[in-house]
Amino acid sequence: LGVRQLIVAVNKMDTTKWSEDRFNEIVKETSTFIKKVGYNPKAVAFVPISGWHGDNMLEESPNMPWYKGWTKEVKGGAVKGKTLLDAIDAIEPPVRPSDKPLRLPLQDVYKIGGIGTVPVGRV
Question: Which helix (H) or strand (E) holds 34?
């Protein structure tokens, strides 16, 4: 699919009473899976959040004093942050091959008599 960068947000930390042990267990299991499908776990930000309470979404949460933040490796070195918003902001925009010809995904092809074949798609 062309997905090169990942963020893992571990939600519902409030249901485990913001448990550091549970978060570390999830990070370990998820890292193993991420490695199997071809990603480097060191290049992935793991963020414990609670969407219901808003913990670690936009601001650092006082409910998880054990959480020191995430670090991920990128081409230019290492990037650090504490919240999900920081992780989203740390995503590097993909390089677009603007010097190459336009590729258009086709939705349909119509054969119109007297005109010819008309490909239809969206830009």
Answer: helix 20-36
